[in-house]
Amino acid sequence: MSDRVTKTITVNGDLPAIYNIWANFEAFPYFMKYVNKVTKTGPRTSHWEVAGPMGVNLEWDAETTRLDPNQRIAWNTKDHDGSVTTSGDVVFAELPDNQTRITVTMNYSVPGGKVGAAVAQLFSNPDNRLEEDLRNFKAYAENGRSS
Known about the structure:
Helix content: 25-40%
CATH architecture: 2-Layer Sandwich
Radius of gyration: 15 Å
Shape: globular
């Protein structure tokens, strides 16, 4: 199963501050519902632990493929057995009135089998999941806590 989802949100805050909050991957558990932990493993690499359905937790390593300050962050991931891959990017745009627009595009590919079924459930309704995570990010960036 392969899919793509794109969502946009406007956040109150200046572009450099909003970009820096997003670029701190280790803070993702504060606003992404299913992310348990992100550990920086190198200058452009990180390890992710995510709560999956039916008690199946997922882990993968990510590589940041683009890091354009105040503009774009892009990544690729692959889990340890090669069964789940994701990629995507986040584009930041400065708006008037001290606001920043964030557009997130995520691509993912899920295999068949038992692990694939668990992952498919994790990615079920990705539009709603990403929208919720972006609302949580907005609250976190604007108020220091997720909604």
